[in-house]
Amino acid sequence: MMRTATAADVPVLHAMVRELADYEKALHEARATEEQLREALFGERPAVFAHIAETESGEVAGFALWFLNFSTWRGVHGIYLEDLYVRPQHRGGGYGKALLRELAGLCVERGYERLEWSVLDWNSSAVDFYRSVGAVSLDEWTVNRLTGDALRELGGAQ
Fold first, then answer.
1. Are 62 and 99 a contacting pair, CB within 8 Å?
2. DSSP label at residue 57
3. Of 39, 59, 86, 126, whose CB neighbour count within 10 A is largest?
């Protein structure tokens, strides 16, 4: 079953974010707190959204956390999938595909023209899974990021 996350889901979302970071060998970078997630998802001006995948018995199997992006070329919003995570014991049960289907359905329903995400190149099982649902890798694009000191230096140089 798929459902929109509620404030009551924040502790399990936080735990799964940390599980994902550990899986991606970057637990040391996962500094978000439950309160930060709660504010981002359910604060005065929510900017991110989450969907939960549950087993038939109500156990949380995984989640998708996303936000809107915008295409200046197409002139419409899209969805950027920040995190898709299915707990190891539930992989292969269709939960990841169901979460992607939920987001694709939102795109179609709302007139958004793309659903995008990044995947670590070493995560071959995820790459294979995404290809199996029709995703295309944009190999000619390079992701860029400013964080930490570089972000503060550039942001302060006004």
1. yes
2. T
3. 86
Is 27 in contact with 18 (CB distance < 8 Å)? yes
Catalytic residue among 85, 95, 112, 130: 130
Neighbour-count burial of 76, counting CB atoms closer than 10 A to its CB (0-12 exposed, 13-18 middle, 19+ buried): middle
Query: What are 36-75's pLDDT values in tens digits?
Result: 999 999 999 999 999 999 999 999 999 999 999 999 999 9
Is 95 part of the annotated catalytic residue set?
A: no
The span from the CA of 13 to the CA of 34, in Å, is 8
Rounded Cα–Cα distance for residues 8 and 139 (Å): 38
State how far Cα 104 lies from the chain centre.
13
Q: How far apart are CA 147 and CA 36, in angstroms?
A: 18
Q: What does the alpha-carbon distance between residue 116 and residue 101 come to, in Å, rounded to a whole number?
A: 13
Q: Summarize pLDDT for 68-86 with one digit per residue, the tens.
A: 999 999 999 999 999 999 9
Structural tokens at position 1: 């079953």
